[in-house]
# Entry
Amino acid sequence: MKKLLLVAMIFVFVFGWGAVPAKTALADAGGVNGHTFNFTFTKWVTSQPNPTFAGAIMAGVVGGDVGNGVYAGEVLTEDFSDYPAFWIANARYEFHGEKHSFIADVHVVQNNTTNTAEITGVITQGWLKGAQLTGEYTVLSSCPIDTLDNVLGTTCFQGTLHVSAGLGFKQ
# Structure
């Protein structure tokens, strides 16, 4: 955990908050019921302690409704039962934006044929705690931004997470 925070802080100091333009997203309307919050990210792997990705540490940048900021993450577990067609994992995603921050536990199903993934999960700490989220990312073999300490060369993952504040949602 300390290593993730250190990587995030180093990234902020080296590259600044606005290093990557984020996709435009709706502003927080004060938690209005029915409002959807969108969070963009570009992430990459900075350490891979095993021949697999379990335990791998990730870094990156975020944007959207959290504001520009940094991403930190860790692959907690992975499942190779459908490999090589699919890579399935549980991970922790941390979004530390200039407006809001949160930590989410996510389940990822990456389709290795299409180089896309579907994400489901829940925000466990911080802004919108308890909210269910969905999302997706695309695997890019040549990342459009610099990826400091990327153990996969130029490969990165760009995506979006979504949270819908439905009726009765508490912010």
Remarks:
- Residues 1-31 have pLDDT under 50 and may be disordered.
